[in-house]
C-alpha cells in the first residue's frame, strides 16, 4: 500500500515502541523522518513515516480507553486542532467525507465511554434477575419454604453481583474491553440457575433433597464464575498497564559528548554568517525534553546531566538556536568534567539524574545503535537516489529516436512515481525533472519509423499512457519542491532553486564527492554535521591504514614514500 505524503501541520497518531499510538502533530521534516510534538505532554520526537497515521481515519482503531490525564488531554487538544483547521491534513480521496462528523461527535466520546459500558452491563445483569414470583404449587409447606429460600439466596447473590461486580470490573478493565466480560459464561449460568429454581417449584418434583443439592451447586457455580471474572479482570488489567505509556521510558534520551562538541563547532560556523542565519528559520533537530548526557558517578553508577532547563524550545531563527545549543553544550560538558574530576558534588548541581539505570556498556551500546540507525537512514536515502538515476537511464533507453518501447517505459515511470524523494534529490539531478517534463508531450518519432496502421494505433495508445504517467510524476515533483511565492512557472522557479543550490555548493567549496553524498541543503545544519562526521571517518581510516605517517613526494609519474622524521 502506498504510504501517505505527510506534511508539516498534519494531525496524526504516532507510534513509539512500548506505547499506544499517541495523538501528535508534525512540526518539521527530518529526512525520512518527521519531527512531531505529542499532544497532552508537549514532548517531541523524530518518527518514521511508516509509524505515522492520519488521525481521523484511524481514531476508532487506535484510541484506547485509558484514564491517564495526559492521554485524555491529548485527544481533547487534537480534536480542537482538527476543528480549527477543518481536518487533519489528509488529502486522500476517502478522508474528507468523514471529517465533519468525526470532529462534531468525538468531543464527548471520551466522557461517554464509561457511562455506555455501565449501562450495557446493567442491562445484561437486570435481564438475568427473575422477574416473576415462584408459581404456587401443591408441594408441602416445608418444601415451599425451602425453595423460596433458595430463590431468595440466588436473587441476593445476583443483586450483589449487579451492584458490586461491575464496579470492580470497571476499575480494572478498560471500557472497550468490557464487552468481553459481559459476554462471559456467567450470564448464561445465572439464567440456568433461575430456570432451575422455577423448575423446582413444579408440583411433579417431590424430592426434598434436590433443592439442597442444587443450592450447594449453585453457590459453587457462582463462586467459580466470580473467580473466573476476577482472573479475567487481572489479565486485562495487566494488558492495559502494558499498553499505557511507561513513564520511565520517557525519562531519558541519550546524547553523546561528540554531538555536543559538534554543536559548538557549528555555532562558530554560524557566527561567521550571522545575517544569513538570522534570516533563516530554525533547522529541524531531534529534540526531546529529557535529553541527557551520560556520566559515570563516583558511586560507580551512570547518571545523566539534563540538557534543557526549560521546555518547549521556541526560536525565531537558526542563529539564535545555534547559539542556544552552544551555550547548553558548554554547560553540560563543563558539568561532566567537574563530576568526573570530583570537584563538585551532586547536591550542588541541578538537573542531574543520579541513576539512569544503565551500565556503561549499556550506554555505549545504545549510542552505537543510534549512530548505526542514522547511518542506515543515510545509506537508504542514497540507494533511493541511485534507483531514481537508474530509472532515468532506463526510460531514456526505451524511448530513443531510432526505436521505442513505450510499454516498458511506462513501467519504469510507474516505479519512479512510487519512490519517496525530496527536493534535494531533484536539485542534485535537474536532468531527471527535465526528462519527465518533456515526456508530458511525448509522441515518438513516428515520421521516421515505418509502421503499419495496426502498429501505429498501438503505439499511439501506449504513448498517450506515457504522457499521462509523466504528468503524474511531474505533479509529484511539484509536491516535493517548495517554491518561493510569486512563481508563475514551476520549472522556472525550480531552475532558480537549482542555480542557488549549485552556487552554495561552490561557495562552500564542496567537491563532487561531497555533493554526491549530500542528503540535505548544503548550508543546512545537518549537512554541516555530516561533513564533520565524514572528515572524522576519513581521518580515522587514514590513521588506521598508516600507523607511521608518510609523505608522498610526487615526481612525474613516480611516487616515492618517505617516512616523517
Class of secondary structure makeup: alpha+beta
Tell me the fraction of residues in β-strands, as a range: 5-15%
Q: Judging from the principal axes of the Cα atoms, what is the shape?
A: globular
Average pLDDT metric:
75
Biased composition (Low complexity): 94-112
Family: Belongs to the HDGF family.
Protein name: PWWP domain-containing protein
Keywords: Coiled coil, Nucleus
Layout of helices and strands:
Layout: E1 11-14, E2 22-30, E3 33-38, E4 44-48, E5 52-54, H1 55-62, H2 69-85, H3 99-106, H4 109-128, H5 141-172, H6 178-182, H7 185-200, H8 209-243, E6 253-254, H9 257-271, H10 274-278, E7 291-296, E8 302-306, H11 318-341, E9 352-353, H12 360-398, H13 406-418, H14 423-428, H15 430-439, H16 453-480, H17 490-507, H18 512-516, H19 525-545, E10 550-555, E11 558-563
Parallel strand pairs: 6-7
Antiparallel strand pairs: 1-2, 1-5, 2-3, 3-4, 7-8, 8-9, 10-11
Helix pairs in contact: 2-3, 4-5, 5-7, 5-8, 7-8, 9-11, 12-13, 13-16, 15-16
In short:
The protein has helices at residues 55-62, 69-85, 99-106, 109-128, 141-172, 178-182, 185-200, 209-243, 257-271, 274-278, 318-341, 360-398, 406-418, 423-428, 430-439, 453-480, 490-507, 512-516, 525-545, and strands spanning 11-14, 22-30, 33-38, 44-48, 52-54, 253-254, 291-296, 302-306, 352-353, 550-555, 558-563. It is of the alpha+beta class and 565 residues long.
